[in-house]
Amino acid sequence: MPLQDVSISSELIQTAIQESLPMILKEKLSSSYSSPISKVVDEALKENDGSIRVFVSKVIADALSDTKFKDELAKLVLAKVIESGLRNK
Length: 89
Hints:
Blueprint: H1 10-30, H2 36-47, H3 49-65, H4 67-87
């Protein structure tokens, strides 16, 4: 079957992008490799900077108001303090 006879629905493309986006963002934020999609992701992040800031702020606020999160964070901080104290002896 010739390539021009193959059609891909916009829903399929949208689903593929949505499913790939978390992986793409994770790689973009943790890698120094400049892939071809990197520029597109950079531009999209810049265009949505305000929305991303609001989202991140809300996630942090929600996490800090969650009792379980605060308890886990307190345990981690205490463990680091104890570890640091033991190393310094």
